[in-house]
């Protein structure tokens, strides 16, 4: 079974200064079995962080091969300055178990935090299908597998409804209007029918006959008769 080594560079700690006490621009390279991979550089720091840059190496013999880390001070106009190195044996690393180690510089108290992961090469090829590579650094990104879903279309046949009523009937394809109450559904009680009130106003009771008023009259008008004159 062919194996590969996955190296994840995390951070450096207490790295040496440049001449005159200036901070370096750290850059790291890894070497394994004739393969060489280089990281990006961090500016003006002795405590660099690489945010998990990932490197892949073909691993031929885990018992004899040694991973070498080289530290450089990055230069823009000239060759990078070598600042130190460290080594890590792979002999006792478990298979398919990520293991975090500290690689100590041999000539300085500084060290690097690195994660090592020995994997099956065939499995790694599947992972690489969803990865992109920047320079020598491969960064894993999730792979999106397109899924094609065929829409299921059920044919629907609609029989036209022809109304026997002459005139303006219902358009073909529309259900005929239903009249009255729908038939009761199984399990539900029949709809309650309420009595309809009689139409019109109820007959009114007549008023009782009124008692007549006593006849009114006025005393006869005129002057009372005068006694006649005596006869002579």
From TrEMBL:
Region (Disordered), start-end ranges: 173-232
Taxonomic source organism: Acrasis kona
Protein name: C2 domain-containing protein
Listed Pro residues bias regions: 183-201
SUPFAM superfamilies named among the record's database cross-references: C2 domain (Calcium/lipid-binding domain, CaLB) (SSF49562)
Positions with biased composition (Low complexity): 173-182, 202-215, 223-232
InterPro entries: C2_dom (IPR000008), C2_domain_sf (IPR035892), Ingression_C2_domain (IPR052981)
Organism lineage string: Eukaryota, Discoba, Heterolobosea, Tetramitia, Eutetramitia
CDD domains tied to this protein: C2
Pfam families linked to this entry: C2 (PF00168)
PROSITE patterns: C2
Residue span(s) of domain C2: 1-103
């Amino acid at each position: 079974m062919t194996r590969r080594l996955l190296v994840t560079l995390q951070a450096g700690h207490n790295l040496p200064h440049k001449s005159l006490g200036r901070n370096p621009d750290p850059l790291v390279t890894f070497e394994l079995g004739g393969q060489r991979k280089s990281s990006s550089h961090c500016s003006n720091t002795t405590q660099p962080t690489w945010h998990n840059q990932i490197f892949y190496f073909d691993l031929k013999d885990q018992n004899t091969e040694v991973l070498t880390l080289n530290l450089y001070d990055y230069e823009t106009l000239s060759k990078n300055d070598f600042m130190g190195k460290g080594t890590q044996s792979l002999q006792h690393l478990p298979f398919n178990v990520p293991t975090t180690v500290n690689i100590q510089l041999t000539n300085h108290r500084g060290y690097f935090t690195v994660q090592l992961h020995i994997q099956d090469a065939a499995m790694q090829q599947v992972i690489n299908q969803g990865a992109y590579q920047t320079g020598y650094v491969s960064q894993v990104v999730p792979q999106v597998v397109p899924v094609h879903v065929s829409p299921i279309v059920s044919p629907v046949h609609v029989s036209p409804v022809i109304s026997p009523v002459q005139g303006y009937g219902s358009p073909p394809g529309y259900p005929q209007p239903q009249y009255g109450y729908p038939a009761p559904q199984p399990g539900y009680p029949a709809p309650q029918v309420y009595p309809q009130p009689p139409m019109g106003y109820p007959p009114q009771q007549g008023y009782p006959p009124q008692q007549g008023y006593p006849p009114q009259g006025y005393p006869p008008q005129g002057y009372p008769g005068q006694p006649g004159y005596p006869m002579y």
